[in-house]
Amino acid sequence: MGDPETFDPGGRFRADIGASRMVDPMPGLEVLADELGVPVEDVVHHALVRWSSAGSEALLAAPPEMLTALREAADAGDVDRVRGIVGALLAGWDG
Asked: Is pLDDT above 60 for 61?
């Protein structure tokens, strides 16, 4: 395991994770699964695949949230945050 502070300078993402624990996503996912006629586990899996590929999708999205955050961090001279965002964009990519 790497240094969390290197990957998430200032702990913004970690704080978002903690805050998200206040919301139960399952009721919405269960309704969606029921409406689609698929197992809820498949909807959860799909949601996780979409989220985990968001870094590469950011390059195609409008506006590109990750790239906007990257520009803001660069403009602010926040090198640690730039490194963290680049790390998130490239996580899991072995290119």
From this structure: no
* Nearest C-alpha neighbor of 9 from the set 80, 68, 78: 80
**Domain containing 22: what range?**
9-52
Q: Are residues 57 and 93 in the same domain?
A: yes
**20, HSE (Cβ side, Cα atoms, 13 Å):** 8
Q: How far is CA 84 from CA 29, 46, 62, in A?
A: 30, 25, 21
| Structure token digits, residue 29 | 């996912």
pTM of full prediction above 0.70: no
Does 94 lie in the same domain as 66?
yes
| One-letter amino acid of 40 | V
